[in-house]
Design a protein that fits this description.
This protein is an alpha+beta fold. The protein contains 13 helices and 20 strands. The strands form 4 sheets. An 8-stranded mixed sheet has the order 6-5-14-15-16-13-17-20, sandwiched between helices. A 6-stranded mixed sheet has the order 8-2-1-12-19-18, covered by helices on one side. A 3-stranded antiparallel sheet has the order 3-7-4. β10 and β11 form a beta hairpin. The structure holds adenosine-5-diphosphoribose and P-hydroxybenzoic acid. P-hydroxybenzoic acid (PHB) binds next to β15.
Length: about 400
């Protein structure tokens, strides 16, 4: 089998890249080690920057996003019993974000790929990139007891944090930058109306909480928990009680509770691999970087990576030039590190760090107090949250 671009990973990165390539007439095959249902079973964040919305439009898979997505002009920070609204739309000259679940976005991309004849090989085991240092890379995988080989021009490693592509370059000079946070997020999804029309990020002495949403009928909530906690130890009632304990009283009393349809604990880390290119292999999205979800940047960084890589691939195939691919890593990393910084700063600002002691708590409270009264500080937060330019 032969293709022009072999894409490893059928998450948002691989699907967005694959669709842009298909639309441009560039042949590509996506391989994933699991199947569509498994991928769609993963609950992920759902705050889209304008750049992500624009990219979905460019793929041609954005119709349902516009129909069902919720435009948001602001979000609120809750601390010391009060709320401060960050008016993103006003502070950024009209920019906003779109609230639309990653699960829905991934399904839209999968459906559009199938409708436009894109080839995706699911349940491909032992996927391995080969000879990407040379001129004739290829990918092998096993399926139904048979080993297959796909010859290609280039390989896109869209296989996430635990994938094979970054693992394949550990002895090729990759540099890993990492920070692991001393807590996790316990998330709960329920078919109950959101407590507020916008998101609420809460800094409370009991710990961080987040009130998010998927639609006007479906809510997504999180509370910070110790890394030692296990989801089995958290009943729905215990979750609802803890969430309400971390919100201002007038908000807590409006929380509509209900049975969880999904409940899980996720660890938080900041991670970047440098560089993102190894010969004819390119790392994209979570394969290259991870952000703590506090700034809702994970999916949005995948979009800017795809944007930069696709520009290079278009030039490679239309003008037979490498210049766009040669600058992919540098271009992507500049935006990646800005989003890493923002996600780290929001995480440090909003979570309880026991080791930081009373002094650290007072510093957080003073920064939040400053944010509540400074247009300059709010503007800086707003322009990072809506997404810095590509
Ligand atoms: N072989 C084949 N496929 C693999 C392998 C492998 N060895 N390892 C991982 N994969 C697949 C996974 O099954 C998954 O479907 O790669 C895909 C990676 O998808 P994501 O982890 O979603 O990463 P990405 O597409 O970059 O999307 C980033 O998704 O994880 C969230 O928070 C993250 O919002 C961000 C976005
Ligand atoms: C979510 O809706 O899952 C979500 C929203 C905003 C975040 C993190 C997660 O910062």
């Amino acid at each position: 089998m032969r293709t022009q671009v072999a894409i490893i990973g059928s998450g948002p990165s691989g699907l967005m890249l694959g669709q842009l390539l298909t639309n441009a007439g560039i042949d590509n095959i996506i391989l994933d080690r699991v199947d569509r249902d498994y991928i769609l079973g993963r609950i992920r964040a759902g705050v889209l920057e304008q750049g992500m919305v624009d990219l979905m439009d460019r793929t041609g898979a954005g119709a349902r996003m516009h129909k069902e997505g919720l435009p948001h002009d602001g979000f609120s920070l809750s601390f010391s019993g009060r709320m401060t609204r960050i008016d993103m739309n006003k502070l950024t000259g009209g920019k906003r974000v779109m609230v639309y679940g990653q699960t829905e976005l991934t399904a839209d991309l999968m459906d559009h790929r199938a409708a436009t004849g894109g080839v995706t090989i699911y349940n491909a085991s032992g996927v391995t990139p080969h000879d990407f240092d040379g001129d004739s890379p290829y990918v092998t995988y096993e399926k139904d007891g048979v080993t297959h080989r796909i010859d290609c021009d280039l390989i896109a490693g869209c296989d996430g944090f635990h994938g094979v592509c970054r693992a394949s370059v550990q002895d090729k000079g990759v540099q890993n930058f990492e920070k692991v946070y001393p807590f996790g997020w316990l998330g709960l999804l329920a078919d109950v109306p959101p407590v507020h029309h916008e998101l609420i990020y809460a800094n409370h002495e009991r710990g961080f909480a987040l009130c998010s949403q998927r639609s006007k009928e479906r809510s997504r909530y999180y509370v910070q928990v110790p890394l030692s906690d296990e989801v089995e130890g958290w009943s729905d009632d215990a979750f609802w009680d803890e969430l309400r304990a971390r919100l201002p009283a007038d908000v807590a009393e409006k929380v509509v509770t209900g049975p969880s349809i999904e409940k899980s604990i996720a660890p938080l880390r900041s991670f970047v691999a440098e560089p993102l290119r190894f010969g004819r292999l390119f790392l994209v999205g979570d394969a290259a970087h991870i952000v703590p979800p506090t700034g809702a940047k994970g999916l949005n960084l995948a979009a800017s990576d795809v944007h930069y890589l696709f520009e290079g691939l278009q030039e490679f195939y239309s003008d037979k030039k490498w210049s766009g691919l040669d600058v992919y890593s540098e271009r992507a990393l500049r935006r990646i590190w800005k989003a890493e910084r923002f996600s780290w700063s929001m995480t440090m600002l909003m979570h309880r760090f026991p080791d930081e002691g009373a002094f650290g708590q007072k510093v957080q409270e003073s920064e939040l107090d400053y944010l509540s009264s400074s247009t300059a500080a709010q503007t800086a937060m707003a322009e990072n949250y809506v997404g810095l330019p590509y």
